Amino acid sequence: MSVMVWGAIGWDWKSPLIFLVKEEGRKGICSQAYLNQVLNPIIFPWLDSLIAKQKKEFLFMEDGSKIYIGAAKLPRKLRGLRGFDWPPSSPDLNPIEKVWRWMKNEITKLETVPTLIEDIKEVLQELRSEVDPTDWQYLIERLTYKLEDVIASKGMATIY
Fold first, then answer.
1. How many whole angstroms separate alpha carbon 47 and alpha carbon 125?
2. Does residue 127 sit within a domain?
3. Alpha carbon distance 120, 125 (integer Å)
4. Cβ neighbours of residue 15 under 8 Å, at least 6 residues apart?
5. What is the mean pLDDT of residues 149-157?
6. pLDDT of 89-117, one tens digit each?
7. Nearest to residue 67, comparing CAs of 48, 86, 39, 89?
8. CATH code of the domain in which 77 resides
């Protein structure tokens, strides 16, 4: 069974964890699965409500996964959802990566690391329930500085 885990954080918001599954007739988890299981049911409605309330522009950060191109690219563009082109050696820019790192670290502290998909899902859901998006706001606040550091280091990983 192919499963991919997706989650997001915002200034004072966190998404549910989504365990993407392979769409019928596809070889693996693809852009169509991302569109059908994440963008349409979660991200687009959430952004519509934010924009309606706050009338602000948002930057939507994704990592370098190939599922973000293909079928998912045009619907994002049509909604005016701006993305971000990642330097290949700087995944440290995306604040969610710190959350994933924390979750992975917490899993290593378990007496028994889960190996069954359902057990892994349960552990991840429990950890996700502990995530308070306000604990991660400092990462969003310092993103401008991180970008300046990456530019100065010519796209390589930064210390800050």
1. 23
2. yes
3. 9
4. 6, 7, 8, 9, 42, 43, 46
5. 79
6. 665 678 888 899 999 999 999 999 899 99
7. 39
8. 3.30.420.10
pTM: 0.83
CB 137 within 8 A of CB 105: no
Over its C-alpha atoms, the chain yields an Rg (Å, rounded) of 17
How many distinct structural domains can be found in the chain?
Answer: 1
pLDDT value for 88: 62
* Rounded distance between C-alpha atoms, residue 25 and residue 34, angstroms: 15
pLDDT at 55 over 70: no
| Residues sharing a CB contact under 8 Å with residue 63, sequence separation 6 or more, in sequence order | 86, 91, 94, 96, 97
Is 160 a domain residue?
no
Task: Give pLDDT, residue 18.
Answer: 96
The 10 Å Cβ neighbour count of residue 29 is 21
Q: Which domain holds residue 122?
A: 3-152
Q: Is 55 left (phi over 0), alpha (psi -120 to 50) or beta?
A: left
